[in-house]
Design a protein that fits this description.
The chain is α/β, with parallel strands linked by helices and 424 residues long. Bound molecules: pyridoxal-5'-phosphate. Pyridoxal-5'-phosphate binds next to α10.
Length: 424
Amino acid sequence: MAKTPFVTRDQIEEIVKTYPTPFHIYDEAGIRKNAEAVKKAFSWNKGFREYFAVKATPNPYIMDIMNDYDFGFDCSSEAELVLAQAVGADGQHIMFSSNDTPEVEYRKAYDMGAIINLDDITHIEFLDGIIGKENYPETMSCRFNPGGVVTMSNGIMDNPGDAKYGMTEEQLFEAYRMLKERGVRRFGIHAFIISNTLTNDYYPMLAGKLFELAVRIQKEVGIEFAFINLSGGVGVAYKPEDTPNDIMAIGEGVRQQFEKILVPAGMGDVAIYTEMGRFMLAPYGELITKVIHEKHIYKEYIGTDACAANLMRPAMYGAYHHITVLGKENEPEDHRYDVTGSLCENNDKFAIDRMLPKIDIGDYLAIHDAGAHGYSMGYNYNGRLKSAELLLQTDGSVKLIRRAETLRDYFATLDITEYGSKLG
Ligand SMILES: *Cc1c(COP(=O)(O)O)cnc(C)c1O
C-alpha cells in the first residue's frame, strides 16, 4: 500500500517561512481519529482506559489531546510524572510502570496518587522503606514476565526470558500476598512481552495468558483484580507492504478471551487497560527535513539537514522509516540513494539503498511514522541540536508546541564553569 504523507510540499513551503527545517510535525486530526477508534474498539469493557505511554511523545500538547478521550498516562520517570501532572492528570489517570526505579520517583508517584506497577518483588521492601508498611495505597499492580520464548501464529517471536522486566510467576503470587498483607485492596496485573507487533493476535494472546493467571491468583491468594493491563506492543505499518493492525479486530479478540475466561470466573467487572505509545502516535508524526547536499562517490548520497539526533531509530535498530520526496509523489522511484544526516557516525542514515524519485537539492523529505519514539529518543551527539515540534491542528493551522534548541540550551549545563560566559 502506498504511504501518503499528511502534509504536501505546498504546505511545507508555507510552514518553513516561519519554522525552518528540520522539524517534527504531528497530525492532530489523525491522532484524534485513531484515539476514537481505540476507545470504540474497547467500548465493550466498562472500565477500559488507555494510558498513553508518555515516553513515545512527551509533549504536553499531545498529551492534552489524550485528555479529551479520558485517557491516562503511562509514566516511568520523574519528568514523565511531572508532565502528566502538568496536563492535569489525577492519580487514577497515571500508571507508573517503571523499572530500576530510584527512590525519589517512587516517592513522587506515591505523592501524586499514581497507580504504581511494581517491576520486581524486591521493590516491595524498597517501598516499605520509602512510604512505610502501613501506608500502602489502595490500588497496586505487578508486572509479569512469562519467561521463555513467545511465538505468534505469524512467526513473530520475542524472548521474554532475556528481558529485564517483570516478575516470574512464582514471585508474582508471593508479591500479591505481600501487598495484601500491607492492606492493598484493588489489584492490577501487567505484562509487555513483544514490541511492535503487526498481528491482530498479540493483545488477544497476551490477554488469554493474563486472564488465566489472574483467575488463578485471585483464587489462591484471595485478592480481587480491578484491572488487567495489556501495556504496549501494538505495532504500526512502517513499511508500505505491511498490513496495518486493525484495532477493532484486536478489541474483539480481547473481548472473546474476556468472555471465555474472566466472565465464567465471576470477574466480568475487571477493567482492561492499555499503555500504547507507538500505535497512538507513530503514524501521525513526520520528520520534515530539507536536502542540502548530494554526493556521488561509490554510492549515491543525499545529505539532509536532519540527523540521527532527530530520529534515532534507523541508526539504533536499523529500523525502516518510509520516505516521501514531497511534490514528487507520482514520479518513478528509479534512483537508489543512501539518505544521510551529518553525524560523524556512518550509521547516521535514514535510509540505505532506498529507491526514490530523483532528488534535487532543496527538496523536502517527509520521514514517516516518526510520531512515537522519534523526537523523544533524540540526543545531542556531535553538538547537534534537537528540532522543533509542530502540531498541524484540525483547522489546518500550525502551532509551535516545542521550539528548536539553541546553542544556549546546549551549553546551559556549562554555565557554572569559567567557560560559561564565553559560550554565549
Ligand atoms: C514503551 C512502553 C510502552 C509503550 O510501548 P509501545 O510499543 O510504544 O506501545 C508501554 N508500557 C511500558 C511499560 C513501556 O515501557
